[in-house]
Every structure is written in structure tokens, then in C-alpha cells.
Design a protein that fits this description.
10 helices; 3-stranded mixed sheet; alpha/beta
Length: 380
């Protein structure tokens, strides 16, 4: 585990450096754009350009928060937080979303004021040129930041990149309204300001919803779950991998537990060797740390147990709400049957267990039933 921790530290340092460098580029670029746009907006009396400048300033502030979140989130685990501080990044993403939402609401209020009390804008050549350059810069910056955010698996950075691409579209709408005013003398900039505000608010709400999903806990990624189960099932002794539970403690900080179904003839020493081998394999291939590996025993003895298993499985899976049965073991001598059943969210566990106990109890009278309900966590 010490080698795994060393590798994690190196990867975290690289990731943090990438986030900081990208965020600094975003801060400098947005502050320059904000300065130019603010000057042009005030000189031309354009609310749309001025609000675009405010939006650039909020983008710069978002990048500052992203850096702080990455720095705090990379703090080493301690006694109080033994699994680290990675989830701080989700809080920083939430703050970025709140800033974007505030900027959008403020923009909407100012734009509506301009519609109620319109003031003529005065666009000059400099205004048009600066807007055109700003659009090009935002397109390049947005694509770069978003790509780096995906590479670093940083929600805040990816959101900043997407926001920058939105800004390019919004700046293009401001440029279009300026062109319409210069050609046909029709002032649309206050209405364009409302459009900008709506798009900003929508982006802020989506960012906040996305981050809330991370904080509340998402369903594990289907492809990652399949990969982990496949890696475990490759071991010749393993007859199945079940009950994979993923816990996320920040970007790229995933911990998991799983059950392996193994022959009931294996010794504790053999199980121990297998468990350590599986933990190392899964970590090296996926970066997920298996914190717990449980074991289900599989009947290798008489054919009677196999017949019971087939009969029980047929009964269980005859119900639409029973997704999977696993961990089955029948003790013929002591007359005990135990297994797990994965239930959908369409039925209450108590109701499902009563139905199964009644049906299987009728099939195998005299047997003690131990049925454990599992939640459908992995969508597989």
C-alpha cells in the first residue's frame, strides 16, 4: 500500500500543477479582456459590452477559487480526515457556480433596467475590433481550459472552460447587435443583455446541479464497474464478483469494496494471497483502491446443492424487481440456504423478502433461509 500511496502523491502533484497553470492563464486572459471591454462599454455607453466585462471578471474570480480548491483538496490525509480533503474541490465548484449564477442574475436586472429606460449606444471601430478579438481569444481559451479540465478531472476547471466557450457565443451576439445598430440603427443591445443573462443563469444552474450530484453521490460509472469486475473475474479461482460499492472522496480519489465468490475448498492463506493480488491489479489498472474484499463460498460438493441453487434462482429471477442473485450457498446437513438478491428501486426490500421467503420456503420446507437484500448500485 505504501507504493500505491507514493504513486498517488506523484499523480496528485502533476494534477495540481496542471490545474494551477491553466487557471493562471485563465485569470490573466480574463482580466485583460475585462479591462478592455469595461473601457469600451463605458465609452460607448453599451450595457451589453459592460456586462460582458463583468462576466470576464467573474471568470477570473472563478479561476482563483479553482486554484484555492485544488490546493486545499490536495492536502495530505490526517487524523481528522483520514481519506483526505479531495471533496473540497466540489465545494469550490459550487462556489464557482454561485458566482456564475450571481453574475447572470445581476446582468438580467441591469438589462431589464436598460429596456425600461433605453439609452443610445455609440459603437466605434475600436469597439468592434476589441469584440472580434475577444471572441477569438475566448474560443481558444475555452477549448484549452476545458481540455485541461477533462485531463485533470477537475469539475471546476471544466466548468470554467465551458463558461468561456459560452462567453464567446455571447460576445458574438453583442457584436451582431452592434453591427445591426450601425447598419439599420436598431438598438438591440439591452435585449442581447437579457439573452446573455439567461444563458449565464442556465450555465450556473447546470454547474450547481452537476456539483450537487457529486456531493450527494452518483451511481458508479458503468464502464469502470465493468472493468473492475472483469479484472477480478480473470483470476482462475474467482467464480464471480459482486456487490461493488464505490466511494468518491474527490476527483480521481475512488475507494471501493467488493465480494468474490470462491470455492468452499480454498484455505484462508489462499484467499489472502488472492485478495492481495486482486487489490494490486485493480489499483494499477484503474486507480481505484479496494478497501475491503469480502468472500462468498460456492458449493463444490454434492449435486443436490446445485439443484437447489437452480430452483431458487429460477424462483427469484421470475420477478421483474429481482435483478440478480449471487452468493448462494446451500448447507444440506444443517438445512440452511443463504444468498443475496439485488433489488430494483421498484419494490420495498421488506416486501420483496417476504415474497421470496414465502415462495422458497414452500419449495424447501424445513430449510432456514438467510436472504440479504442488495441495492442496485452499479446499473449492471
Amino acid at each position: 500500500m505504501s507504493d500505491q500511496n507514493t504513486t498517488l502523491d506523484v499523480l496528485e502533484a502533476d494534477r495540481q500543477g496542471l490545474i494551477v497553470r491553466t487557471s493562471i492563464i485563465g485569470i490573466v486572459t480574463n482580466l485583460l479582456l475585462a479591462g478592455f471591454k469595461a473601457a469600451v462599454g463605458l465609452l460607448s455607453n453599451s450595457i451589453a459590452i459592460t456586462l460582458d466585462a463583468v462576466n470576464n471578471t467573474s471568470d477570473a474570480l472563478s479561476s482563483v477559487i479553482t486554484i484555492i480548491g485544488a490546493k486545499l483538496g490536495s492536502k495530505a490525509p490526517d487524523k481528522k480526515h483520514p481519506l483526505g480533503y479531495g471533496r473540497i474541490e466540489y465545494l469550490s465548484s459550487m462556489m464557482v457556480a454561485a458566482i456564475v449564477l450571481y453574475a447572470g442574475i445581476t446582468s438580467a436586472v441591469e438589462s431589464v433596467k436598460k429596456i425600461i429606460r433605453p439609452e443610445a449606444a455609440d459603437y466605434g471601430t475600436a469597439s468592434i475590433v476589441i469584440l472580434a478579438v475577444a471572441i477569438a481569444v475566448k474560443l481558444v481559451l475555452g477549448s484549452y481550459v476545458k481540455k485541461q479540465g477533462e485531463k485533470a478531472n477537475s469539475g471546476a476547471l471544466t466548468a470554467s472552460g465551458s463558461d468561456a466557450l459560452f462567453d464567446a457565443v455571447l460576445s458574438a451576439s453583442v457584436l451582431a447587435s452592434a453591427a445591426i445598430y450601425l447598419i439599420w440603427h436598431i438598438s438591440l443591445e439591452a435585449y442581447v443583455g437579457v439573452l446573455i443573462a439567461i444563458v449565464i443563469i442556465k450555465a450556473g444552474v447546470e454547474m450547481m446541479t452537476e456539483t450537487l450530484d457529486d456531493i450527494l453521490g452518483r451511481r458508479a460509472d458503468t464502464e469502470l464497474v465493468r472493468e473492475i469486475k472483469s479484472l477480478i473475474a480473470q483470476e482462475p479461482e474467482v467464480m464471480g464478483a459482486y456487490d461493488l460499492v464505490m466511494s468518491n472522496y474527490g476527483p480521481d480519489k475512488n475507494y471501493a469494496s467488493v465480494h468474490m465468490e470462491l470455492p468452499d475448498t480454498m484455505t484462508v492463506e489462499e484467499v489472502d494471497r488472492l485478495t492481495r493480488r486482486v487489490e494490486a491489479k485493480v489499483y494499477l489498472a484503474t486507480g481505484v483502491i479496494l478497501t475491503g474484499v469480502g468472500v462468498y463460498s460456492h458449493n463444490t460438493g454434492t449435486g443436490e446443492a446445485a439443484d437447489i441453487r437452480n430452483a431458487v434462482q429460477k424462483t427469484v429471477l421470475s420477478h421483474d424487481w429481482a435483478i440478480q442473485m449471487h452468493g448462494f450457498y446451500a448447507d444440506i446437513e444443517s438445512k440452511k440456504i443463504r444468498f443475496d438478491v439485488v433489488l430494483s428501486f421498484d419494490i420495498a426490500p421488506k416486501e420483496a423478502l417476504k415474497i421470496l421467503r414465502d415462495e422458497i420456503g414452500a419449495q424447501f420446507p424445513g430449510y432456514e433461509l438467510q436472504i440479504a437484500p442488495d441495492v442496485d448500485l452499479t446499473d449492471i
